[in-house]
Each structure stands twice: as C-alpha cells, then as structure tokens.
C-alpha cells in the first residue's frame, strides 16, 4: 500500500564529504615541484607530513626510483597488453621475488580493490557463505556484495567479535560448504589488529571456516621479510587462508599481491579472475620499483628499517601517554587516532594544525561513525624526532581550543568513544538561559506546552498524557517508553526552545527497504529482539510533526540548541540508549549544517502529508477545488463505492470492536514492512476508546454491519488539527471496495464537519494522499551513533 522512499547511502556520504571539502580538510591538492615525504605543500605552506601510508619511506628510496626510470626508458610508460596473453618481461622476476618473500604462490594484481573484485567471486563458491567484520575495508565489502546475485549468504559481525562470529558459523555449518570470514590485518583508521591467532584457532575448531585477510596496512613494517602483521602472527599460511598484501603504501611501489597456499584454488584464481584477466597490467615502472623493493625485503636491511620506524612509533606513544589527548586505541602500529567526537571539532582541529605547520588526515564517516570523528596520524621514517615532539605539543595546545570554539568538552569526547575520562569537566551552562527538564507532561504548564510544541499530531498536552499512561507498566519491553520534556527560557522567562524526547526500543530496520526487513524478520522468528536497539528520539514513535520549537528570532537560539543537545547526550547515557534520532525536519540548511557538524548524519524519511482547510468550507467545495484529474479519481475510485459501504463515526468502541480494530491495524503493520515497527499493546486501543480526544471512522459491509473492514483512528488536537494516526484494513476488501481511499476521504469529510483547520495525514502513501489534495513535504531525520554496525549491516542487506 504505502510506497516508502528509502535512504541513499551515497547521498549521506556526499553530505559529509561536502562539509569536509568546504572546511578545507578534504580533496586538497599538494603544492610544489618535488616531494620528499618529510614535508608536503598545502595551500602555499610546507607542512610536516603525518598523513602518509608509506611508513618505511621506501617510495623515496633511490634504488626504487632508479629501477622505475630504467624500466620506462627500456619498456615505455605502459605495456598495453592483457596479462592473460603476455606479461611484461619484468613481471617474472617480481613474481619470483614476492613468492620467495612469502614462501607461497602469489598473484600480482593492479591494486587491492581490483584484486578483491577478481579473487572473491572466484574463491567463494555458490555453496559457500561469507561473514564480514563490520570494519573490514570497503573494497572487500563491495566485492563480497556481488555474490548476493548468486544467492551466496553475506552476513556481518561486530568488529572483532569472535563470540558473534562463532554463533554465525554454527548457524551456517549445516547448510554451507565453506564459511569465509573476511577481515583486515591492521585496520586503517584506529590502527588496531584482527585477533589473528584466535581466528586461526577458531578455523581449526571449525574446518569449514576459511579466513580472508586484507593486510595492506600491515605490510612491510612488520613480519619476516616484511610480509605483514598477519604473517607475523601465524608464521605459515594454511590452505584455508587467503592473504592480500600491497606493493604500494609501505612497499613503496604500486600494485597488490594475493598469497594462496592452496594449489587448486591458486590455479583457479590465476587462470581466470574477472578483473585479473581483463584489467591492464602494472606499468613497467611500477613492476621494476616493486622488484627493487622486494629485493630489500629479502635482505636483513628490512629489519633495520622496521626497527627504525618502531623507535619512532614508540617515542610518539611515550609522548602521548604524558598527555590527556584521547588516543582511541593503544597499539604498536604506525597508525594513531586522536578523537575529536564532533566533525566540526575535527575540522577546527585539523585546520589549526595545518596553520601551525602539520599535515594530518581527518577520519570521518563512513570510515568511522560521525560521532567518532577524529584525527588520523601516521608515523613514518621520514618524521624526525623533533617534529614528532612538536606535533604532540601542537595537539596539546590546539585541541582544547578547538573543543572550546565548537562548544563541546574533552569529557564529551571521551564519552563519545567510551573511554575512561582523565578529568572531570563542568557541564555546559549558560547564565542567560535556564532549562526545565522533567519526566512527565503533568509537570509542564498546559497552555505554554500547547502553544509551543502541541500544535500538531498527538503531541499536545492531553495527547502526551495519554501516551505516557499507555506506554508504561506493560509486559513487553518494547511497549514501555520513557518521556522527557524540555523548555529553555531566557532570563526574562521567554521560551527559546522546547521539545520532548522519548527512549524506547526500536527495530533498527524501521526505515529500511522491505527486502531487508523481510530478511531480518526471518531472524526475529527465533530471536525477537534481533537488530533492535534502545533509541533516544525527538518525539516518539507514535507522534509525527514538528517536535522541536525554536524561537528563530531570538539572539540566544544557537546557545539554546547547544544546551539542548548536551541534555540529549546526558539522557542518552541515563537511558542506556545506543542512538539519538532527531526527526521530522524539513530541508532547513542552517539546521542541517548545525546537526551534521555535531555528529549527526541526515537520512530521508517518508514524505509528510498535510491538508490546510478553509473556514466554513464544505466537503463539496473542497472536492471541487481539486484538479480535473483528481476529481475524476474521486468520482471513479471513491464516490462510486461510498454507497456500497456502511460508514460510521464512533466515539467509543465496544469489546468486539476493539478486538476487530486491533486485528485490522496489525494487518496493515504486517503488510507494511517499509515502516517496520513493533506491535502496539492491546492497552493502546482500549485507552483510545475511553479518551475524549479520540474517535474512530469505521467502515462495515452493508451485508453485515458488525463486520469491520476498515478503521481510521483519529485524534483531535486542540480542536484545530485532525490526526488520522493509525489505520486498519481487511485486505480482502481493499481492492473491490477501495476501503483505503474511502477512509482517506471520510477523514477529510469528518475534519471539515468538525470545522478544524488542519489535517495531519502522516507519513507514507503520499501518492494517494496527493490525489485528495494533500500537500507533500520532504522530511529528514538526523541520526547519531557511536557504532556503524547497524547501518552497515542494513546497507549489506539492501545492497
């Protein structure tokens, strides 16, 4: 029935990246006629370079440069033939040297992204399954998703969660031949490790488990012959493992390498691997430079280089331990992440460091949750000790200033990353503002509330009192909601901001695609709370409309918003919520910039539908104002059927009607997974029937006026707005009797009869509502979470 407009993940990423570009921290161009690795030119300034992935500095090694130059002079800038036919003469030596490094057969690929696209569809058979670590590199996830077209199950576990992984292995072991777990060796944002030894032990316990590692960030700076972090942990590659390393980044050249000890699997991949077959081969200069690097890796010199880098990373770690800087993961890799929490704090911090002479990378969504933005710092052999010390001093100086200028606190940064705070900071306050924060609408003045927030939906004072009583003391967790009400006044007691929040259990796929929800609902047959989370939301699941009142002309509106968001953060912790959702906003660009800079991502909601009514207008006059096309629709699809139905306006339902109404509503809920919510308790329908603000538009058959085939549950807000909040339908009658369209029409007819001014027709089904004169408005939600797992799993299910 309802057509749901679903979110485009790329739109969200584009929003975040556009902000970062506008702030001057992304899509930059390096300046200068040369590059040494120690410094980098940005916007006319020479900055000390702490953003490289060339940790050993081999890209500047004279031997690699000389080899590349010689190859170009001898073979040209490229060798324009498919490698499936014939390889550049330099390839043979490269393959021999890299094979010697790993002591296993290898396949050289153009880059790791094309490598994954070639290897994963070849290695994973139709009888297999894939489980992804939710932080595994995008290129691995993208390649794995392709196999869904072959009906290969692709699932995901939380980062490094071996208990969750083992549960999924058990669930798949009876139906799948091989179960592939895909992870990074070193994760590129925080520099943390995969638990390689534990994963190997798990694969020995479950022989069906095959391990696929992307270790491009662990390459060269660790391991025998610089073969990387994974090899340093296991020493020998077993036949149930595939390993990707890189010939770029720390290796200093270009390309990627797959290592495979399973001879049969190796032949299959090398013989035909999609992009491995059809993509252009590496340029002669890249092959020659990689060969020169491989020769270094096969000599004791590699350990000298590794130790040199290790001493620098240890020095950096030592300096960080002496500070309060929020280092997110303590490890020995050359990758470090200093948390800033909110994106705008990160923008400010990065720009401050660049002005002070240091180039660092900003880690932002989707690589990390928006709320977990931070500065990614890499240490290389190019970095001198005095520069490392200067960087730490600069961060100690600039981070507090960036935090202050973006209205946050170090304590809140620690809280965002779930770190133990090193210091206690005062809560946000403003001497010009006072905040009233209470847990019941009964503690709020009724007239003030109805003037500020209670102008639409079921969110006037009486409606919220009804919801408090209905969603409390119920048997099921999902039907017990906690409410808070906020009013922020200036020192003259003039309201600047008002809203209410609700904490309750949500289905994480509430706004996901129908296909994703169907998959998740199958899991919920055995685990009812699978992919559900406690959410703190603006408004509640039962209300729609403008939940946030802001006095836009008030000089302190920005300060009031800051105070309000700080209050939501405290309530998030207090309620043990995993996510904050601010909902039902239009396309206000000022608010969009504000929320996004404070750690929220914008997702598009279903459109909202509203009707404005004119005083003393009759239903005939209303219909006559529709377009000619819509009037034809009304005559043919609605008016024609009205005489076939028994339509009644009922103020109170009897026991039989309550039961029928609940069943009809559940029909709609179960048939509308595009807006996937929990079932409401029977108490809701009973309370509606006894509340003076609720009434019911009921459609019965003429043959049996006790047989309810449609019902609209309508709320009268302040005698101004009519709110058809829920609908119930018997789907056996919906097509022949047009009961859904009939209920929409009867709702308009009733609102006009009551001489009301507005109808809040709610979300979804905008096409049908537009035909009856509704105004359609885009609506957005802003989501803040410190864990991307749910969003990424939904993306996997929808992809």
From TrEMBL:
Residues 48-392 form the Aminotransferase class I/classII large domain. Residues 674-769 form the BioF2-like acetyltransferase domain. Its cofactor is pyridoxal 5'-phosphate. InterPro entries: Acyl_CoA_acyltransferase, Aminotransferase_I/II_large, AON_synthase_class-II, BioF2-like_GNAT_dom, PyrdxlP-dep_Trfase, PyrdxlP-dep_Trfase_major, PyrdxlP-dep_Trfase_small. GO terms for molecular function: pyridoxal phosphate binding; transaminase activity. Keywords: Aminotransferase, Transferase. PANTHER family: CLASS II AMINOTRANSFERASE/8-AMINO-7-OXONONANOATE SYNTHASE. This is Aminotransferase class I/II-fold pyridoxal phosphate-dependent enzyme.
């Amino acid at each position: 029935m309802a057509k749901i407009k679903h979110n485009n993940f790329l739109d969200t990423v584009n929003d975040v990246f556009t902000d970062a570009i506008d702030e001057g921290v992304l899509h930059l161009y390096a300046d200068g006629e040369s590059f040494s690795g120690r410094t980098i030119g940005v916007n006319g300034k020479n900055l000390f370079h702490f953003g490289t992935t060339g940790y050993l500095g081999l890209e500047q090694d004279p031997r690699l440069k000389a080899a590349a130059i010689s190859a170009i002079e001898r073979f040209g800038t490229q060798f324009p033939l498919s490698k499936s036919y014939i390889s550049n003469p330099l390839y043979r030596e490269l393959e021999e040297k890299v094979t010697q490094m790993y002591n296993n057969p290898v396949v050289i690929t153009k880059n790791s992204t094309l490598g994954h696209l070639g290897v994963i569809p070849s290695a994973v058979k139709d009888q297999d399954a894939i489980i992804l670590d939710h932080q595994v590199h995008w290129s691995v996830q993208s390649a794995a998703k392709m196999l869904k077209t072959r009906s290969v199950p692709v699932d995901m576990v939380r980062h490094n969660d071996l208990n969750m992984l083992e549960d999924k292995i058990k669930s798949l072991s009876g139906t799948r031949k091989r179960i592939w777990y895909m992870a990074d060796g070193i994760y590129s944002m925080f520099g943390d490790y995969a638990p390689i030894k534990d994963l190997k032990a798990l694969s020995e316990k479950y022989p069906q488990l095959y391990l696929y590692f992307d270790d491009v960030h662990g390459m060269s700076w660790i391991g025998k012959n610089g073969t990387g972090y994974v090899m340093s942990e296991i020493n020998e590659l077993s036949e149930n493992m595939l390993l990707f390393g890189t010939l770029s980044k720390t290796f200093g050249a270009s390309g990627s390498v797959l290592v495979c000890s399973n001879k049969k699997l190796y032949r299959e991949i090398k013989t035909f691997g999609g992009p491995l077959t059809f993509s252009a081969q590496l340029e002669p200069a890249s092959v020659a430079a990689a060969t020169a690097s491989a020769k270094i890796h096969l000599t004791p010199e590699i350990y000298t280089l590794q130790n040199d880098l290790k001493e620098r990373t240890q020095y950096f770690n030592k300096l960080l331990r002496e500070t309060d800087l929020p280092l997110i993961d303590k490890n020995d890799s050359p990758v470090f992440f200093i948390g800033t929490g909110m994106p705008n704090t990160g923008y400010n911090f990065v720009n401050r460091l660049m002005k002070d002479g240091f180039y660092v990378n900003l880690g932002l969504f989707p690589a990390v949750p928006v709320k977990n933005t931070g500065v990614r710092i890499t240490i290389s052999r190019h970095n001198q000790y005095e520069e490392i010390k200067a960087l730490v001093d600069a961060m100690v100086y600039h981070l507090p200033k960036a935090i202050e200028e973006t209205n946050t606190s170090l304590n809140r940064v620690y809280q965002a990353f779930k770190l133990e705070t090193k210091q206690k900071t005062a809560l946000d306050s403003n001497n010009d503002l006072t905040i009233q924060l209470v847990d019941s609408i009964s503690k709020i003045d009724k007239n003030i509330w109805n003037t500020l927030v209670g102008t639409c939906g079921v969110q006037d004072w009486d409606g919220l009192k009804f919801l408090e009583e209905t969603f409390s003391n119920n048997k099921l967790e999902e039907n017990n909601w906690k409410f808070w009400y906020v009013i922020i006044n200036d020192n003259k007691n003039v309201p600047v901001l008002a809203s209410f929040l609700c904490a309750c259990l949500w289905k994480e796929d509430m706004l996901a695609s129908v296909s994703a929800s169907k998959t998740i609902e199958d899991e919920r047959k055995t685990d009812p709370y699978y992919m559900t989370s406690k959410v703190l939301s603006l408004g509640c699941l039962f209300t729609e409309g403008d939940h946030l009142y802001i006095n836009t002309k008030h000089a302190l509106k920005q300060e009031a918003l800051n105070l309000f968001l700080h209050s939501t953060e405290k309530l998030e912790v207090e309620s043990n919520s995993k996510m904050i959702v601010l909902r039902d906003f239009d396309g206000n660009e000022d608010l969009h910039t504000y929320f996004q800079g404070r750690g929220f991502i914008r997702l598009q909601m279903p459109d909202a539908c509203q009707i404005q009514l004119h005083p003393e207008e009759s239903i005939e006059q209303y219909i006559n104002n529709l377009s000619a096309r819509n009037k034809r629709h009304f005559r043919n699809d609605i008016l024609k059927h009205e005489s076939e139905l028994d339509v009644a306006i009922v103020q109170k339902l009897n026991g039989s009607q309550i039961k029928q109404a609940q069943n009809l509503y559940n029909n709609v809920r179960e048939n509308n997974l595009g807006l996937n919510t929990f079932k409401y308790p029977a108490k809701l329908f009973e309370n509606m029937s006894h509340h003076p603000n609720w009434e019911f538009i009921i459609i019965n058959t003429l043959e049996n006026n006790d047989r309810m085939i449609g019902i609209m549950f309508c709320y009268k807000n302040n005698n101004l707005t009519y709110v058809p909040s829920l609908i119930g339908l018997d789907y056996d009658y919906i097509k022949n009797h047009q009961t859904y369209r009939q209920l929409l029409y009867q709702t308009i007819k009733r609102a006009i009869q009551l001489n009301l001014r507005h109808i809040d027709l709610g979300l979804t089904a905008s096409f049908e509502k537009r035909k009856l004169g509704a105004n359609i408005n885009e609506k957005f939600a802003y989501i803040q979470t410190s864990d991307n797992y749910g969003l990424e799993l939904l993306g996997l299910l929808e992809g």
